[in-house]
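Fold it.
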Amino acid sequence: MKKLKSTSTHPTIGLKIKWHRKRLRWSQRKLDERSGITYTLISRWERQMADPDYGQASKLADAMGIPLGPLWDASPPPAAVQEKCT
């Protein structure tokens, strides 16, 4: 099976989305229901195959009850985020 190359230009946002979703104990489908963004697209972001645009990131942050800033900024996620998401 051929592995797809990542097209992410914001390599930390997918990890942050996944970490916050898991912190809430939500499935991708539950985040889909809460945000109005399909779980297949959420999966692509979490696997760092693509990045959400600003509006999509805002919907995710609102759905998860977190500020957009820490999700959207380019700072690397804490080591704990990286470890829990790998």
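Residues 30 and 76 are 26 Å apart (CA to CA).
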